[in-house]
Predict the 3D structure of the following.
Amino acid sequence: MLHLQNLHKTYQGAAPLHVLRGITLDIAPGEFVSIMGASGSGKSTLLNILGILDNYDEGEYILDGQPIKNLSESRAADLRNRMIGFIFQNFNLIPYKNALENVALPLYYQGVSRKKRNALALEHLERLGLREWAHHLPNELSGGQKQRVAIARALITKPRIILADEPTGALDSHTSAEVMQLLTELNAEGMTVIIVTHESGVAYRTKKIVHLKDGVIESIEENLHPSDNPFGDLMK
Amino acid sequence: MWREIFASLMRNKLRTALTGLSVSVGIFLLIFLLGAGNGLIHAFEKNSGQMALNVMQLSPGITSKPFEGLEEGRSIRFEARDIPLSRQAGRSRVMAATGSASQTITISYGENTSTGSLVGHYPENFSIRKMKLVAGRYINAIDMQERRRVLVLGERVATDLCGSPAQAIGKIVSADGAAYRIVGVYADKGEMGEMQAHTPFTTLQTIYNQGNNVPTILLQTHNAASVEGDSILRSDLRRALAARHRFDPTDEKALWMWNSARGAEETAKAMSILRNALWFIGLLTLLSGVVGVSNIMLITVKERTHEFGIRKALGARPWSILRSVMAESIIITAFFGYIGMVAGIAATEWLNVVAGTKAMEVADMKMEVFLNPTVDLGIAVQALLVLVVAGLVAGFVPARKAVRVKPVEALNAR
């Protein structure tokens, strides 16, 4: 599904910053992976590259058989739209659009008619228990509700991969557990889910933990019984 | 897409309105200036249509070069014989020639008297000066040939002397002891100055032994409007008159010539310069409005950078972002521009009602000051085109800026 070979990334500037120093990683379809590391370890940069939001300098990145290198902006936009569902720490909902419109937005960029995309968006909101909130603006929703809207938006294009950047970072422990439960269920349905986090409590809910340190993979840990780790106890 | 754009415009109502206002004012001024300019141009065109356009005027001057032993500084004087001479010298380019000489007289009819000039004219004077008759006829060839004592008076004098123009026809008046018959009355409404009684040039010559001083010669020209025709005619006339009056043919100051046909061409040029200048001023005003829109769009784009980042992450192509920013800019300029245009057209129509029929009456003609100061459909369409282009220009820089930000940078923007 996802193949990284000796990936390098340097931020140019007054003092060039070599953030990723040769990442080699394979993620198979249906995996539930977390990328864990302290701040500055390069985990966000890695996620941006995986999400085709940023480019890399050296190495190879193949997403679902498609080499990701030197893509035009339009091609990159299409790939993001169809292959990847994003979940962000700060939700990234568009403030002047209601929940329904936010969820339907990716379909707008596919050229789906308003009627059809709103129907689909409502279906997804219903599945996440937000039907009554469909016509509310984001600032009228709680943090957990916002993140569920964002998840509905990530799912609406039926992507191959869900990329979540600190999905529980702005939530309390109770709603964090709910969101992790949702992601676990998605994975159980066969979705490939990749989470970037610095919280071990979140990481230990996934099946595979990639430890990142100073731009290299320190270790890859198989977590055979993710549910054995009580979430709340490890939130620290 | 349209919903998106209107939603974005509605979020900043005041800002949008204030920016749009500058575009409205710009296009309003453009239309208003062009309308007012058109009023002047139309009036001028109509006025010049009332005067003969194919007239060459000759006046003698003072020599500035010595010639054949004669000193410079000599005054040249036209005489009666210079009139047929200039006619011949101009060859096919002169259709008629006229000149005049005058004598101060007092005309009396019964108790009534009037003082002014007795002016000797050629029959051609009538058509060259585009005169209008109120009653009777003008001087004709037989009058000239037989040196008849006939007069053509102005309307005012005829009324003063005989009661009305119609009553004046056929009356015998006396001037300096000689009797003259009134044969015609010309229109001189609004004309300033003293009484002018027209008589055949030959009659004046005979009675007063006048005619050795002809201040100006008027030629009715043909094919003299072009630069080439004008210069051929000028050199022909100059050569002939120089030979007779013995001045250097290259002496520009010995003979003055003014060609109204060339003048008309230069007037047309001046009018087109005026029109262009008005466009220029109007467009500059509009430009300041466009810069305002561009500026506001830049701010809007900066504020929305994060939102564009979200959209890019969700799969918005560059074209989609570019299109939405450009469309927003075009909508602002087109909407407010349209308001300005309608207001401008309304203002020119108002101007038309208030000042569109202003005219001064000079001599026998109406001089329009301001005629139909409105813009035609062509200008309105051009203005609309200008608006759309203005919108594109105003939106382009901000839109490009929005597109160029990398998705990851846009997402991190706050």
User: Anything to note?
Assistant: The CA atoms of residues 126 and 132 of chain A lie 8 Å apart. The interface with chain B takes residues 48, 51, 53-54, 73-74, 76-78, 80-82, 86, 88, 92-94, 96-97, 105-106, 109-110, 153, 157 of chain A (CB under 8 Å). The helical segments of chain A are 43-50, 73-83, 99-108, 114-127, 143-155, 173-188, 200-203. Chain A has one domain: 2-94+141-198+206-222.
